[in-house]
Amino acid sequence: MTKKYQRFETAVIHEGYDEKEMLGSLSIPLFQTSTYVFDTAEQGERRFSGEEEGFVYSRLRNPTVRVLEERIARLENGEKGLAFASGMAAVSAVLLSLTKANDHVLCSAGLYGCTYGLLTLMKEKYNITSDFSLLDSEDAIHAKIKPETALIYVETPINPTMKLIDLELVTKVAKEYSIPVVVDNTFSTPYLQRPLDLGCDVVLHSATKYIGGHGDVIAGLVVGKADFIDDLAITARKDIGGIMSPFDAWLLLRGLKTLPIRMDRHCENAVNIFEKLKGHPKVASIYFPGDTESSDGKIAAKQMNKSGGMISFEIKGSKQDAQYFMNRLNFIKIAVSLGDAETLIEHPATMTHAVVPEASRLKMGITDQLIRLSIGLEAWEDIWDDLEQALEHV
Ligand SMILES: *Cc1c(COP(=O)(O)O)cnc(C)c1O
């Protein structure tokens, strides 16, 4: 199909869907089917051999899911996309496909708790080791690369410390060794940051977060080169089987249509809340990519269109003070996950990152006083009023 439009805001609504193939339906139909009928036994044979294009069985391909895969590929400026049952299904598929026993994975200085847990499992079962590094200079990256390093795996901003990784710097060094760079782009979405444009090889998402945006679906997405995605589709997805359900793809396509306008609001609200929290006497430190005075702020300005909707901050006091503060909130919800319409607050040390052993957690900057805030779509003045009254109680 020739593209009659250029921009992101149009692609989130139109990419990958041709209503002429779907009886003129404006809304993308939900293909809630497990299997597809062949005209003849011979056609079945041709479909299985790949000689003839077409649908066979929904673990392999589904028309609703396919629209989402084409759409996310275009949004990330990649060749192909692949959908998974969860963000972790996407993470595990990519990690398993790029590693073999005794390999090494170089990671950013912090990762989503379950990704950390998966790497621990891979070490125990397959002796696949991993290192965590700030990756903040060419020398620092060179120093961490070993002969058996199979990939570099980064989050930026890092969950939950909001530290930034300079993707151009990392890809520059990785290319010298021909090592692929994988980016978990969950916190930024392709609206704010497109790692493939910066030379990275694979992008993945927990689509549960901003891409879905409504707190009603668990899902994962991967985008990369066609040969990598084709291989991933056969091995890690068809044979391991963590596929996305058609209904979840349908919900995500619905959510995705408003991604740019939702993100604009999340970002604007977050800037306002950051300005208020920054100088508050009960706040010991604050981490936000929009902090232009920090070194991370400079990286953000270089590679992100806006600074996102996530803020982390440390409260002055103890773990109990942090929990007391959270309990005093009125409408802000205590919940993990992020990117929803509702403002959500969580305590990483005892929730999302409780699996990380204390020493590693503290090294990553996840203290007992650290609180992670996902700024929602409410009026920012109401969000601030709620935070402020709870801070006064600490
Ligand atoms: C939530 C999250 C994941 C895991 O995604 P699920 O959809 O919960 O499986 C991975 N990476 C990041 C950065 C996340 O926030």
Automatic annotation (TrEMBL):
Names of the cofactor(s): pyridoxal 5'-phosphate
GO terms under cellular component: cytoplasm
E.C. no: 4.4.1.11, 4.4.1.2
Record keywords: Lyase, Pyridoxal phosphate
4Fe-4S in keyword set: no
Residue numbers bearing the N6-(pyridoxal phosphate)lysine modification: 209
Top EC group: lyase
Gene Ontology terms for molecular function: homocysteine desulfhydrase activity; methionine gamma-lyase activity; pyridoxal phosphate binding
Family annotation (PROSITE patterns): CYS_MET_METAB_PP
SUPFAM superfamilies, A to Z: PLP-dependent transferases
GO biological process, one term: transsulfuration
Catalytic activity as recorded in UniProt: L-homocysteine + H2O = 2-oxobutanoate + hydrogen sulfide + NH4(+) + H(+); L-methionine + H2O = methanethiol + 2-oxobutanoate + NH4(+)
Keyword Lyase: yes
One Pfam family matching this protein: Cys_Met_Meta_PP
Family (UniProt): Belongs to the trans-sulfuration enzymes family. L-methionine gamma-lyase subfamily.
Annotated protein name in UniProt: L-methionine gamma-lyase
Gene name of this polypeptide: megL
